[in-house]
Amino acid sequence: MSDRINVRNPNEISKLRKAGEVSARILMDLMPIIKPGITTKEIDDYAAELFKREGCGNAFLGYGGYPGQLCISVNEVVVHGIGDNRVIHDGDIVSLDAGAIVDGWYGDNAMTVAVGNVSEEALRLLAVTEEALFRGIEQARQGNPLSEVCGAIEDFVKPFGFGIVRDYVGHGVGRHLHEDPSIPNYRPNYPLPRLKRGMILAIEPMITLGTYRVKVLDDDWTAVTTDGSWAAHFEHTVAVGSHGGDILTDRPRIALPEQLGITL
Ligand code: MF3
Ligand code: CO
Fold it and tell me: Looking at residue 92, what is its pLDDT?
């Protein structure tokens, strides 16, 4: 099964890093406009300008018929929120997910932004989810079974009592948005392959304040928690290295406890 996981050489990884850098810049450039009063469609329209300015392809638009530039997932929306007339309010949390294509190579990354006065509980959710991603990245080193990445995320999140979404998982990425392997955010009950240097992983914990259960709305995309509890989503594309994942979508962290004025 690990035969099906692509291994990229340093030249290929430098191309993936270009796509990753653009993907990360798009997220960072979106951040200042995520303010009360803007609609998610206006955010998506602004993303269209950013993709144009970068001169890159969009990994999501048209993927399986996906209609948006980005995924914009507010509060109880876990993933795959489509820009529409929903208005962002003070106190909301907004997950932004963006993927760029540069010379046929894909980047994929996501983050959840706090808008104005957000509850301490939701800020903790953000900090825990971002940190969980980094715990997973740390384990993305050669020789480690992939299950160590999954397990590190689960082990970090569990003591907080938050929901770990199971219906959506991380994935390999490279010449396509989704390649092998699947990367659950919990230790699966079946063995996963050992990691090799140069495997490219999109690690993306989706964590909720309540249930892990999600349902997809009638638009066939928008995934919400079944109990309406709020969700956070952080994602990086990383190359498996000798000491951990080499982050190809590198950008500043936005949800360290000290940045949010909380303790975990
Ligand atoms: N990061 C998400 C994923 O890997 C975004 C996909 S949105 C889609 O599944 F529209 F492209 F499906
Ligand atoms: Co992804």
Answer: 99
- The predicted pLDDT at position 3 comes to 75
Q: Judge if the beta carbon of residue 160 lies within 6 A of ligand 1.
A: no
Region for 208 from its dihedrals, namely left if φ exceeds 0, alpha if ψ lies in -120 to 50, beta otherwise:
beta
Question: How is residue 13 written in tokens?
Answer: 């990884």
DSSP 3-state of 214: strand
Task: Please give the pLDDT value at position 1.
Answer: 53
Reduced to 3 DSSP states, what percent helix, strand and coil does the chain have, rounded to the nearest 5?
30, 25, 40
Integer angstrom CA distances of residue 70 from 26, 88, 138, 186:
10, 16, 27, 26
Q: Average pLDDT for residues 106-124, to the nearest whole number?
A: 98
Region for 66 from its dihedrals, namely left if φ exceeds 0, alpha if ψ lies in -120 to 50, beta otherwise:
beta
pLDDT digits (tens, 9 = 90+) for 39-60: 999 999 999 999 999 999 999 9
Ligand nearest to the CA of 79: 1
Instruction: Give the distance (Å) from ligand 1 centre to CA of residue 217.
Output: 16
* Cα of 123 from ligand 2 centre, angstroms: 22
Among 254, 252, 257, 255, CA closest to 24 = 252
Confidence tier at 127 by pLDDT (50, 70, 90):
very high
